């Protein structure tokens, strides 16, 4: 079954058949408008600004946001299905767009009326790009240990410290920064301010168009109304945003894996060894079957988690499960794709090595597979204790 056909079947099973036409149109748009520049973006480490603009103009950034936030009000699984096509076409574009969307969710849920008025329309329409900055050099998986300080003073807070690995940093107009205030971790929503500078841009293995940089704060003054939520609520806000982000990463991983799978189907049908196409060897067929079924299983889990989220469920465990399963499936699929491409998979001739490099991030960003397993187990144990009374 083709990618699109499989996605449509899943949407139908969720009662979302009305949106299949939109998905078909969007898939064709991505193949036509986003995919052609992906290899160049990767090779030149070019920020995918043009692709992001095209997605915004197509209405993608607004897909599943509420109409009162300026969105299109489409169901969450439809947005995830669309995200797959963005990632299948260009993973750097999908990553930039995914983190942007997660921040916009945070503003929609936790923003004050003034913050929504100032930021939300621009974020939902995609006219302004957002950055999420939680990680620090000494606090990655243990994000609760961040040290960047937010000291209260006259009329606001003074931020000092170093953030790292912030996707879209330097390119974004809107920054969601997590810092430690006396009450605990606190979130701040701001445009670029004096005292805030951008450091090293990391030369990443994959998603090479992404702008992954340090953000440095040196006595940067933020007004009181830059705070998102209340003092000390930052970690809960970060977790809520990460739940959205994890679902987006799950869909991105699926798109990357699907791209590698489809290229492999073509390759094994064309490439002959020992006088026969590779596709005729049973060993190739075993690999193809594993690729197809692991993507299908991960897709079902991801759309299911999206459907729960769309109904207002926090779905923290389901989002973690979807991200864990989809990212590990994508990595395995890309690895098998590379193997089936032989030397071509390892060289610049084919594009499978790009998909492999892009997939490699998916088990690390927005919670490593190890941390997600801890999260999932914590929820399972809590449920069991609850059931036992
Ligand atoms: C390209 C890229 C983009 C990113 N974008 C963003 C972004 O936009 N915003 C942002 O805030 N961050 C971002 N990050 C940071 C990312 O979220 C972290 O890299 C990730 O959370 C892991 O943290 P770490 O790199 O410090 O690794 P560490 O926390 O040092 O972990 C190293 C290893 O130890 C394991 N480990 C750690 N603790 C445990 C434990 N308790 N039990 C078992 N194993 C454990 C981890 O699973 C991992 O395998 C990005 C990172 C990259 C590479």
Please explain how this structure is put together:
By secondary structure, this protein is of the alpha+beta class. The chain folds into 3 domains: 127 residues, Acyl-CoA dehydrogenase/oxidase, N-terminal domain (Butyryl-Coa Dehydrogenase, subunit A, domain 1), CATH 1.10.540.10; 103 residues, Butyryl-CoA Dehydrogenase, subunit A, domain 2, CATH 2.40.110; 153 residues, Butyryl-CoA Dehydrogenase, subunit A, domain 3. It is built from 13 helices and 10 strands. Helix 8 runs parallel beside helix 10. The site of flavin-adenine dinucleotide has 20 residues, from strand 1, strand 3 and helix 13. Flavin-adenine dinucleotide binds next to strand 1, strand 3 and helix 13.
Please describe the structure with a list of short key phrases separated by commas or semicolons:
389 residues, alpha+beta, Butyryl-Coa Dehydrogenase, subunit A, domain 1, Butyryl-CoA Dehydrogenase, subunit A, domain 2, 3 domains, four-stranded mixed beta sheet, four-stranded antiparallel beta sheet, globular, binds flavin-adenine dinucleotide
């Amino acid at each position: 079954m083709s990618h699109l056909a499989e996605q449509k079947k899943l949407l139908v099973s969720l009662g979302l058949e009305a949106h299949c036409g939109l998905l078909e149109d969007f898939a064709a748009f991505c193949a036509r408008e986003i995919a052609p520049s992906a290899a160049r973006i990767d090779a030149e480490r070019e920020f995918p600004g043009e692709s992001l603009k095209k997605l915004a103009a197509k209405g993608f950034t607004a897909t599943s946001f509420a109409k009162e936030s300026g969105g299109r009000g489409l169901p969450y699984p439809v947005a995830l299905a669309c995200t797959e096509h963005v990632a299948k076409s260009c993973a750097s574009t999908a990553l930039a767009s995914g983190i942007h969307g997660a921040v916009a969710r945070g503003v929609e849920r936790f923003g004050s009326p003034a913050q929504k008025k100032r930021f939300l329309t621009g974020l939902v329409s995609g006219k302004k790009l957002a950055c999420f900055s939680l990680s620090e050099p000494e606090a990655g998986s243990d994000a609760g240990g961040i040290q960047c300080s937010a000291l209260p003073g006259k009329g606001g807070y003074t931020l000092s410290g170093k953030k790292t690995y912030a996707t879209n940093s330097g390119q974004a107009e809107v920054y969601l920064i997590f810092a430690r205030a006396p009450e605990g971790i606190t979130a701040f929503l701001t445009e670029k301010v004096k005292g805030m500078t951008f450091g090293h841009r990391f030369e990443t293995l994959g998603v090479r168009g992404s702008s992954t940089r340090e953000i440095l704060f040196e006595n940067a003054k933020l007004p009181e109304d830059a705070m998102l939520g209340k003092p000390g609520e930052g970690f809960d806000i970060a977790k809520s945003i990460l739940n959205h982000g994890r679902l987006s990463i799950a869909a991105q991983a699926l798109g990357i894996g699907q791209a590698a799978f489809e290229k492999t189907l073509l390759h094994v049908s064309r490439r002959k060894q020992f006088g026969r196409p590779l596709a005729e060897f049973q060993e190739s067929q075993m690999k193809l079957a594993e690729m197809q079924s692991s993507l299908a299983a991960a897709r079902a889990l991801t759309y299911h988690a999206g459907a729960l989220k769309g109904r207002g469920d926090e779905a923290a465990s389901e989002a973690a499960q979807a991200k864990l399963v989809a990212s590990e499936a994508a990595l395995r699929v890309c690895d098998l794709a590379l193997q089936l491409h032989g030397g071509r998979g390892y060289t610049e001739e084919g594009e499978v090595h790009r998909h492999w490099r892009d997939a490699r991030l998916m088990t690390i960003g927005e919670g490593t597979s190890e941390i997600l397993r801890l999260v999932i187990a914590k929820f399972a144990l809590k449920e069991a204790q609850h059931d036992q009374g």
